[in-house]
């Protein structure tokens, strides 16, 4: 079982920073998705890919993965950059 640990990013349509301090442990898919013959929807028998565990800190997520011997990949949070500009810059 392989997993990824990452921090939840702020949505582009969201102005607040609510729930961006949570860390997620998400299992990687173990098999490819295949179309259902009747409906054509993509699916698989892998139930671990549906599991997302949230943790209050990175240390808690790593401790959980170490306790249950889950191999994980840590995905660091990209640095936040602000583009400060004035309204008048739109007319230059």
Kindly list the characteristics that best describe this protein.
92 residues, two-stranded antiparallel sheet, alpha+beta
Secondary-structure content class: alpha+beta
Count every beta strand, where a strand is a DSSP E run of 2 or more residues.
6
What is the overall pLDDT average?
A: 89
**How many helix segments?**
1
- Main-sheet strand order equals 5-2-1-6
Q: What series of H and E elements makes up the topology?
A: EEEEEHE
Q: What gyration radius follows from the Cα positions, in whole Å?
A: 19 Å
Strand content: 25-35%
Helical fraction equals 10-25%
Q: Quote the distance from N terminus to C terminus.
A: 54 Å
Low-confidence stretches: none
Overall form: flat
How would a textbook summarize the main sheet? 4 strands, mixed
Structure, explained:
The protein is of the alpha+beta class. The chain contains one helix and six strands; from the N terminus they run βββββαβ. Helix content is 11%, strand content 25%. The model has no long low-confidence stretch (mean pLDDT 89). The protein is flat.
Q: What topology does this entry show?
A:
Blueprint: E1 2-7, E2 23-27, E3 34-35, E4 42-43, E5 52-55, H1 58-67, E6 71-74
Parallel strand pairs: 1-6
Antiparallel strand pairs: 1-2, 2-5, 3-4
């Amino acid at each position: 079982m392989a997993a990824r640990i990452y921090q939840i990013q702020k949505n582009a349509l969201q102005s607040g920073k609510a729930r961006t301090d949570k860390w997620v442990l998400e299992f990687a898919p173990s098999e490819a998705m295949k179309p259902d013959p009747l409906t054509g929807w993509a699916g698989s028998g892998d139930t671990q890919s549906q599991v997302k565990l949230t943790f209050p800190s990175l240390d808690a997520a790593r401790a959980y993965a170490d306790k249950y011997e889950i191999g994980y990949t840590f995905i660091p949070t990209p640095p936040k950059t602000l583009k400060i500009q004035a309204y008048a810059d739109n007319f230059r």
